[in-house]
Amino acid sequence: GQTAKIDVDTRGAVSALLQLSIAVAGVAAIPAIPVLAAGIGSIAAAATAAGAGIGALGAAAAPAILD
Hints:
With 67 residues, the chain is mainly α. The protein contains two helices and no strands.
């Protein structure tokens, strides 16, 4: 038998597969966006409530501090 050497350039195929995997990951992330937004909203709501509580505590303590 004879031996043949074949050189194959796969850079284009690897690049296309990488682009395809990025596109699939982007499509898969779409349902997670509202969940992440809700999580961020709940963190903001908790921070607002904490700020309001600290403000109310300061308003209640101000007369005692000023005396």
